[in-house]
Description:
Chains A, B: Residues 77-550 form the Amidohydrolase domain. The structure is a homodimer. By secondary structure, chain A is an alpha/beta fold.
Amino acid sequence: MREILIKAPLALAALTMAVSGAPAHADTLIDNVNGITLDREGELIRFTGLVFDDDGTVTQLLERRDDRPKDVDYKLDAKGKTMIPGMIDAHGHIMGIGFQALTLDLSQTTSLEEAQAAIADYAERFSNRPWIIGRGWNQEKWGLGRFPTAEEIDAVVSDRPVLLGRVDGHAAWANSKAMEIASITGKTPDPEGGRIERANGKPTGIFIDSAEELVGRFVPPPRPVDRDLAFEKAQEILLAQGVTAMADMGTTMEDWQSYRRAGDRGALKLRIMSYAAGIDAMIAIGGPGPTPWLYDDRLRLNGVKLYLDGALGSRGAWLKQPYADAPNEKGLQFLEDTQLLNMMSRASMDDFQLAVHAIGDRANQQVLDGLAEMIETFGKDRRWRIEHAQILDTTDLPRLAEYGAIASMQPVHQTSDRTMAERRLGPDRLKGAYAWRSVLESGAKLAFGSDAPVESANPFIGISVAMTREDANGEPFGGWQPSERISREQALAAFTIDAAWAGYAEGRFGSLTPGHRADFLLIDEDITLAPPSLIRSIQPSETWIGGERVWQSGNSSEE
Amino acid sequence: MREILIKAPLALAALTMAVSGAPAHADTLIDNVNGITLDREGELIRFTGLVFDDDGTVTQLLERRDDRPKDVDYKLDAKGKTMIPGMIDAHGHIMGIGFQALTLDLSQTTSLEEAQAAIADYAERFSNRPWIIGRGWNQEKWGLGRFPTAEEIDAVVSDRPVLLGRVDGHAAWANSKAMEIASITGKTPDPEGGRIERANGKPTGIFIDSAEELVGRFVPPPRPVDRDLAFEKAQEILLAQGVTAMADMGTTMEDWQSYRRAGDRGALKLRIMSYAAGIDAMIAIGGPGPTPWLYDDRLRLNGVKLYLDGALGSRGAWLKQPYADAPNEKGLQFLEDTQLLNMMSRASMDDFQLAVHAIGDRANQQVLDGLAEMIETFGKDRRWRIEHAQILDTTDLPRLAEYGAIASMQPVHQTSDRTMAERRLGPDRLKGAYAWRSVLESGAKLAFGSDAPVESANPFIGISVAMTREDANGEPFGGWQPSERISREQALAAFTIDAAWAGYAEGRFGSLTPGHRADFLLIDEDITLAPPSLIRSIQPSETWIGGERVWQSGNSSEE
C-alpha cells in the first residue's frame, strides 16, 4: 500500500464525529474501506473512511456520502478492504507464546511416535543446548489412553535432560536424565497441589501440577536477552494474527521488566493488560496500586492472577463431584477459602483487579463464594474476572451477574476439550460447560481470549468457534451443545470492546469510534457476512496499532 | 520571582553559542545572573543570561554585551543572583535519606544520655509503631570509649523492639526485646562477614556488619506506599540543598520501582544515576545491560555497587596491617578475589559499570588487583569507580590512573573521621588517607559525593571541606593534612561536570553550556569569591531541573 502525500486542497471536510481540539497538522486518512466497528453499547457502526491524528487517535469516521477532510497530511487508499478493530485477547501468556515459539513444539504431533521423532530432530538441531525443553504434547490427541513415560523419551534422547510440558501446562514429561538431575526416586513424596505419576511405586516420568516444579526448578532460567527475544517473537506472532492487545495472565517481575525494556526502547507495539503472577509479584510490580497506563496506553498492571485449580485434561480441575472417569478424584484445590479471601482482600484494598483461574465447578463455586464476601466491602464495580469459568454448576451461573463478575473464556478450549470433557464429566455436568450464551443471558459480561500458547492465538478461529461450536473439521456438525452458540456480533464484542472493558481499557482501545486509539486490521473478508468457515481462515493483510502499521502480509514485521 | 511574558519585540538576538535547530517557540531567558559554570575541560565560564528551550535544554549563554534574543516567550530577572549548575552528588543512598528523615535520628546526639532521651521521646510520639527504628548514633562522638549496650535502651524502651543503626550503617544497636524476637543468645554464632559484640559470652546488643541482619530481618519491611513517601521526602531534602542529581549507591528492585513510579506519574524531578545493590539486582533491574536514560535524562541504571569491606569506625575496613588501636584486627574481607573477579566480569561483559566500595588500604588493593585483570579484557575506558577510596597505600595510588579508575570520594568523611582515623591507623598510614589532591595529581578522575544519609547531603559543606580540610568549627586550623586540599574549581568540578562523567551523564547535565539540561541553582553568594566558611552556609534560593523550578526558598517544594 502506497502512502500519498496530499498536496492539493480537498473538498470541505466532513466534520461529523470530529473530536474537537485534535491537532490538524499530521492527520492521516485511510479511505475506501469497508469499515466495521462496535460502539460502547455493542452496536455495529459502518464507515468508509477513518481519520486519525498525530497521536494515533481516531478523530473521525466517514461515511460514503461525507466529504473527505481537506487538511490531512497522509492519505491511504485501502482499495475496499474491510477494516475492523484490532483483536483483543482477554487471556493469554505473552512470554509463554514467545518461549514456546523458541522451544520444541509438540502440539502438532498426532502420535507418540511423531513426538519421539520431533524430540530426536530437535535434539540434533540444537546439539549445544544443555536441556531440551518443549511443550504441547497431548496424550488424548495421540489416542494413547495413558500418559507417556520417561523411557519413551530415553529411547530417543538419553544423554541430556529433557522436560516437556503438556498442552495445558498442567503436567510435565521428563526423561530419566532429567529425573536423575532432580534426584527423583520412588521415595520422593508428592508435593502439595501436585502428583508424581507412579507405576509399581516408581515415578513414570509424568509430573502433575505443582509436581512439575520438582524437575522444572533444575532447568537453568532464561537470561534477560532470552526473555527479550521471546517477547519480540511473541509480539511478532500476535501482530501477524491481528491481535493488537492481550491480557497477560500471570506476569512475573522478569516478564514485566521485558515489557518495560521494550517500552523504554520504543519497541513495544502490542498493548498489554497485565495481571501479576500472584500477590508478591503484584506488589513488586505495582507497589501501592495498579500502574498508570504507560507508553501511550501500551502497558498497565491491572491486577493479579490467582489460581484455584488445575486443568481438566490432567484432572487437576476441582470438581464438586468425582471425575466420571476417575471416581476417586475430584481434582486439586490450590487455596483454602481463607487464603483466597485474604488474597482477594489484599488486592482489592489497593484497587488491584482480580483475575481468578477457576475451571472446575467446585473452583468456580469457591471464587463466587469469595466474591459474595468481597462485594460486601468493595461493591460490584470491581470487574471481578473469573478466568476460564469452564465448568459451571448451573445453579452457580446466575451468581456471576449478581456479583458483577466477568467470565473470561476461551472459545477454542471448547472444541479442543469436547470429547475429553465428556469423558471427565459425564453427560450430567455438561450443561454449564463452556456456556457462553448462558453467561450472556444471565446478564454477566463475557470476554474472549485464546489462552495462547495453550491454544493458537488466532482470534478468528475463536470467533468462528464461538458462532458454531464446531472444530476445524466442522465437527460435530451443527455444533456441540449448539444452544450455547453466540452471534457474530457478540463474539466480535467479546474479542474487542468487551475485552477492553474487562481490562480497564475502555475509551482507549477496542473500538474505532473517535477518541480511541487507531488499532485496526485490514482484511479481505467482510466479517459481517463471511461464513464461520471463512472467518476461521482470516489472515490480516495489515495490522495497525496507534496509527502505525506494525505488520503487513508478506513481511514478518514492518513499522 | 515573577514571570514576565515578553510581548514587545526585543533587539536582535545574540546567537553566539546557539544550538541550531532548537525550537524557538517556547524559549525561556533567565537574565541578569552572575552565571558560573565549567565546560567539559573544567574551564570556568561566566555569563549574565541563560536561554533554554521548551525541552529544558540550554540553548544559549549570554554575556553582558550580547543582545538578548527577541523570540523568547518567558523572561525572568534573577536580579543579580549567582547561577551555578545543579550539584551532582556522586555517592548517596536516596531511599536511605528518605527513610532516615522518617525515622528516629540520633545523628545530632552528643552523649549517650541525649540519645536515650531522644529514643524515649520518639517512642512516646509514635506509640503505635510496632518497631522503633533509628540510626545515626556514633559512640565516638559521644566520647563513650565503648559501644553502647542493650540495657541502655531497655532503660527507656523495654516493651517494644528497638533497632538503631550506627552513623556509618556498619553496626546496629538493639534492645533486649529486639534480641528476644530475633532469638539472639550467647549461643548464636557470628555470621560470615559480621560479629556479635559479647561481654562474658553474652551478646551486648551491638551487631557488626552482616550480623546486623540477625536482628534486622525481623523488622517488617516497608510497604510500597512507605517507600514512595520516603522517596518523595528524599527528593525534597536534596532539591532544597541544591542537589539536582545523585548516584544512588545500592539500588534494590524495590527502590527502582519507587523511582519508576515517580517517573511514571511525572513526580521524578531529581536525576538518578543508579548502581544496583549487587549482581542479582543488576540483572533484575537492567536485564541484558544498562537501561536507557529514562524520563528525559532523570533515571538510568548505570551498573552495580559491590562491597569489599566495612567502615573504619566499626573496624570493618579491611587493612593491610592491623588496626593501630586493635592489634588483632585487620577488618572484614567481604569477597574472595575469585568472587570479586567473577562479579566484575559478569557486570562488565554486559557493559554494566562497576562501583566498588573499598575503604581500607587492603580493600583498595583488592579492587585495583581486580581492575588490573579487567583491563586486559575490557580496556581502560569503562569508568571503573572505586567508592570511598578512603585509605590508599601510597604505592597503590598511581594504579588508579593506570587502570582508568575514578575515585568517588566524600569530602565530609574526612572531617568526621579525622580523629578516629588517627587512632585506627596510627600516623604512618595517613599519607594516603582522604588524599584528594594526590588522586588528582596522579592523573585519576575524582568525583565527589556525600554518602548521605551517613553524612549531610549538603554539597556546599563538601566543597568547603574540599578546599580547607577544616570542620564546621574551623578545626584543625589550616586543615588536616593540608597538602591534600584542592582548589575551589577542582571541588566544583568534582561536584558537577566530573560527577556527571563518572555517571555516564556527560553532555546531558553537569554543565550549563548549550546542549545540557538547564539544571541550575540561584544563590546569593558568588561561589568563585566567597570564603570557604561562607560557601559552607550556602542555601539555594531556587533549584531548577530541566528548565523547571523545582524548589524555592520559603516553600517546601514547588513546581
